[in-house]
Amino acid sequence: xxxxxxxxxxxxxxxxxxxxxxxxxxxxxxxxxxxxxxxxxxxxxxxxxxxxxxxxxxxxxxxxxxxxxxxxxxxxxxxxxxxxxxxxxxxxxxxxxxxxxxxxxxxxxxxxxxxxxxxxxxxxxxxxxxxxxxxxxxxxxxxxxxxxxxxxxxxxxxxxxxxxxxxxxxxxxxxxxxxxxxxxxxxxxxxxxxxxxxxxxxxxxxxxxxxxxxxxxxxxxxxxxxxxxxxxxxxxxxxxxxxxxxxxxxxxxxxxxxxxxxxxxxxxxxxxxxxxxxxxxxxxxxxxxxxxxxxxxxxxxxxxxxxxxxxxxxxxxxxxxxxxxxxxxxxxxxxxxxxxxxxxxxxxxxx
Length: 351
Known about the structure:
It contains 10 helices and 13 strands. The chain has helices at residues 5-18, 54-62, 87-94, 113-119, 130-136, 138-146, 176-188, 196-202, 262-268, 279-288; strands spanning 30-34, 40-45, 70-75, 98-103, 123-125, 150-158, 191-195, 221-225, 244-246, 273-276, 294-300, 329-337, 340-347. The strands form 2 sheets. Strands 9-8-7-10-6-11-13-12 form an 8-stranded mixed β-sheet. It has a 5-stranded mixed β-sheet with strand order 2-1-3-4-5, with helices on both faces. Helix 4 links the parallel strand 4 and strand 5. Helix 3 (87-94) runs parallel beside helix 4.
């Protein structure tokens, strides 16, 4: 059956509704119920973990008026019982005649709703405005694919690969255009990660700010790795979000590579995208562990050198002991930011 323009309009409305829900461990989903004549009966969206799914919200709002109706939803109705029951079953029980969805559910446990609906005689159309739907759910879909939050590792360096002068000073290697780009990218992330060494040495605010120093509308949650205590006077204690400290230096946790890992812990806290900006030690740890999905390297046209072997490299030990073990990267973009360059890359094996 052909998807009507009215159903496409309802899908666009569902995208808008979905964006009202919080980003987190669950996807943002919106739903619109249409009468057999194409009129909007009810709307709904998912309001967070443990709350009714978008389809259930729309069914409740319809108050029993969905017999023979069409449910337009941004994500394939789920087919499993978690904190809530399967939406596919609820739609069948309510007498919905047709379901139109945008993105297929990639979850191993939750997918299969479309098949269940069709088996019950419900007409189903998928992949409607799928590019827009995928863009809406990009972060969540990426987490489903990786099984963990997506990680961007950032560092700034001189042309000769230094992050600081021999005495440890590093403000500022790059210029204002590069720093503004960093703040913009911070604002796109759910969390910003540093180590306790950076907190104690640099006292960073870990906020995302505009050129005038004002806070941007979205702020990443500050995350500190390490066991040392954050001082009462630390700037990050004045961050709009309470900081989250993960008291470990082992990214994989103490009892295995997945279950107790730092990233698993962050995912449980609703974090989908991580921006690592914690200096050479933390940045190198993520690269060494194979957990850097994207790398942002800001290169300033300056030379720092070293004195008395007091090197301050932008990146430290990443587990490479021989040239055959080097970490090859694929370049995504090279951008000029004022006098500086930004090289965006990803590990070769992900190409």
